[in-house]
Design a protein that fits this description.
CATH architecture: Alpha-Beta Barrel
Order of helices and strands: EHEHEEHEHHEEEHEHEHH
CATH class: Alpha Beta
Mean pLDDT: 93
Strand content: 15-25%
Number of helices: 9
Largest sheet: 8 strands, parallel
Distance between the termini: 24 Å
CATH topology: TIM Barrel
Low-confidence stretches: none
Number of domains: 1
Length: about 270
């Protein structure tokens, strides 16, 4: 079992410079404490919530600052990034980190960034899977052509080739029950933010993921990464009281974010 930290939300009362300083301190602590990975969200056009509008740039900085800890995206929003450019940026980071990068991918349950960039949210699922197809093909390092609904190009090749073989680990986010078996059939590691479901529901979803994984003929039982809020304190009381304001603020924001897109097209299952 691996343990890591997840960086996303700016602490209330902290300015943007302070948010980066706190992020630097957490990264240094993760390296010193022996944690396995630092995960970075992608948060566009949301300065009140996060400074992580460019997680690959921050990941590159972390890779240069550290020597041991892995760094990953949780998650990169594939429908909002051109897959050819993203494929090359990820393999570049794979080399710069000497194979310490994990590529977490998703489409986001919030349409806010889509609205800002003029991308219809109802296209997010199709865009996601087409972009993933392009990226995986591009990582083979050979010239290829693609004629899809959203991307078309002829005889292109992405450089550099991946540092890791056959490519950086790809981990797909799942936020709905219907997504879990789909990811299992694809044979991809899964990333679950434990926010909108309780532990019994999570157990059922993971069972469908593993059943689909096995039925598709993939070896093993899959690979699951859980994002669970944890706070360690010197006493039980301190562990409850010290983070109370921050965790309450976080959960309220999550509730608001969950309610905001209800009724929007494209809000069905796909992770």
């Amino acid at each position: 079992m691996d343990f890591g930290i997840f960086l996303e939300q700016t602490r209330r009362g902290t300015d943007q410079d302070g948010a980066f300083r706190e992020m630097f301190a957490l990264v240094d602590a993760a390296e010193e404490w022996g944690l396995d990975v630092v995960w970075l969200a992608e948060m566009l056009v949301n300065p009140a919530r996060s400074v992580l509008s460019a997680p690959l740039l921050v990941a590159s900085w972390i890779a240069a600052r550290t020597r041991r800890v892995r760094v990953g995206t949780a998650v990169q929003l594939l429908p909002l990034n051109h897959p050819l450019r993203l494929a090359g940026e990820v393999t570049t980071l794979d080399h710069l980190s000497q194979g310490r990068f994990d590529f977490g991918i998703g489409r986001s349950g919030s349409p806010r960034s889509y609205d800002a960039l003029g991308v219809p949210y109802e296209e997010s699922t199709e865009r996601f899977f087409e972009a993933l197809e392009v990226i995986l093909e591009a990582w083979k390092g050979e010239p290829f052509s693609h004629a899809g609904r959203f991307y078309q190009f002829e005889n292109v090749a992405v450089s550099p080739r991946p540092y890791q073989e056959p490519h950086p680990p790809v981990r797909m986010a799942a936020t709905t029950a219907e997504t879990f078996p789909r990811v299992g059939r694809m044979g991809l590691p899964i990333f679950v933010g434990l926010r909108g479901m309780d532990v019994p529901e999570l157990s059922r979803c993971l069972r469908t993921y593993r059943e689909a994984w096995t039925a598709a003929g993939h070896p093993g039982q899959g690979d699951v990464c859980l994002r669970v809020p944890v706070y360690a304190g010197p006493t039980a009381e301190a562990a409850r009281e010290e983070p109370r304001e921050t965790i309450t603020y976080y959960m309220q924001r999550q509730a608001d974010l969950t309610r905001a897109p209800i009724g929007r097209a494209g809000m069905g299952p796909s992770g």
